[in-house]
Recover the amino acids of this structure.
């Protein structure tokens, strides 16, 4: 294989993505060390603490059960800010449209973006639109950037996990990836699977009173829960041990994954967060999540067991233990 080629796997959020970032992009652009690579950059401008993030969306198909590329873009950027404990303030939106794209479909998308922004309490304040010739794009790509206010002194980041922390997820995993895959492939699945795309800033606001007990927040999007926890383990230098029997996965997602040979741990989510919380406050964190509409199926799925070079292991339902690594290739391309 030609090592000079960009592959779909380089956009998976997994091992190839990290190699591309670590070997080429980050050294030449910023030099930010691995411990500082989080969902958003933290900035201090004139004594004002801000979080800043950007993301691009190329999901295929652009309309899927539970959402579309527009509200997905808004929610994804809002969530990246929220994972730093920031209060999202405003967004920019950039459209790249292919010649021949329907205005009626663009209208559906921009209306859904407006509705998603209103639901999250953010303003869309600036943007840009470009059109490429027919056949030179794929209908529509969207870039969104966001700014949020950091109104506390907590240190919430991927390098802050500590031995003893409990790992909590706010609900069932894999819904978004399977909803998009089903729509893309025309799977006749009568299971009601919908994308979990949603803004998580309201839920995070309710978790912030946990104070110094709230160590890490991450939304497990591309690469799923497995890849995200591996990133945290590497950043923090710890071992995370998961419990397979405690993983919340709805029956429809389990069924599709079983048929197609997919692992829900690696399937993308767009309305889920992982919280690593000190053990003495974990019960309180779980209760807060379960009281929130986006956390009724929240569960403790693991814990940080020891300092290490960055490991994730799974205690299986038959009593064994297996290693969990980052997504190696591209399990589901064009998922966000």
């Amino acid at each position: 294989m030609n090592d000079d080629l960009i592959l779909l796997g380089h956009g998976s959020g997994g091992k190839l993505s990290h190699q591309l970032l670590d070997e080429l992009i980050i050294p030449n652009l910023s030099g930010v060390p691995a411990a500082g690579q989080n969902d958003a950059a933290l900035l201090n401008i004139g004594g004002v603490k801000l979080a800043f993030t950007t993301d691009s969306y190329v999901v295929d198909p652009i309309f899927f059960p539970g959402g579309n590329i527009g509200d997905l873009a808004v929610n994804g950027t809002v969530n990246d800010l929220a994972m730093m404990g920031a209060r999202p303030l405003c967004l920019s939106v950039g459209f790249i449209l292919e010649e021949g794209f329907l205005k009626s479909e663009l209208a559906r998308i921009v209306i859904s973006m407006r509705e998603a922004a209103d639901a999250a309490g953010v303003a869309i304040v600036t943007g840009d639109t470009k059109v490429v010739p027919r056949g030179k794009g794929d209908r529509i790509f969207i870039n969104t950037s966001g700014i949020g206010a950091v109104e506390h002194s907590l240190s919430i980041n991927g390098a802050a996990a500590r031995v003893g922390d409990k790992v909590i997820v706010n609900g069932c995993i894999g819904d978004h990836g399977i909803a998009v895959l089903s729509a893309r492939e025309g799977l006749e699945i009568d299971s009601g699977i919908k994308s979990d795309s949603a803004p998580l800033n309201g839920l995070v606001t309710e978790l912030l009173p946990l104070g110094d007990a709230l160590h890490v927040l991450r939304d497990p999007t591309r690469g799923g829960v497995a890849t995200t926890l591996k990133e945290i383990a590497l950043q923090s230098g710890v071992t995370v041990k998961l419990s397979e029997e405690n993983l919340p996965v709805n029956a429809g997602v389990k069924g599709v994954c079983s048929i197609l040979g997919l692992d829900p741990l690696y399937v993308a989510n767009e309305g889920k967060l992982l919280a690593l919380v000190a053990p003495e406050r974990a019960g309180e964190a779980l209760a807060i999540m379960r009281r929130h509409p986006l956390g009724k199926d929240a569960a403790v799925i693991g814990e940080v067991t020891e300092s290490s070079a960055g490991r994730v292991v799974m205690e299986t339902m038959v009593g064994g233990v297996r290693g969990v690594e980052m997504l190696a290739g591209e399990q589901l391309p064009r998922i966000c």
Observations:
- The two ends are 26 Å apart (CA to CA).
- The mean pLDDT is 95.
- DSSP finds eight helices and 14 strands in the chain.
- The first strand starts at residue 41 and ends at 45.
